Fold Transposase.
Amino acid sequence: MDIEVSGIDLGKTVCSLAGLDATGAVIYRKRFQRHRLLDFLESLRPCVVAMEACGGAHHIGRF
């Protein structure tokens, strides 16, 4: 997977992800429980991560 941008909506307990390639086409859409999100992101090669967050999501953003 050649993901250029990972878009994340950090919800209260479930996070929605969308991965985009260089042309902006959606490669994947997934939902993770918040505690499993970092494990998935570690498996990706470096890319831009764009987050839409709720008020308490700043903790995840630091990682």
The domain at 5-61 is CATH 3.30.420.300 (Nucleotidyltransferase; domain 5). The chain has one domain: 5-61. The first helix runs from residue 34 to 42. The chain has a mean pLDDT of 84.
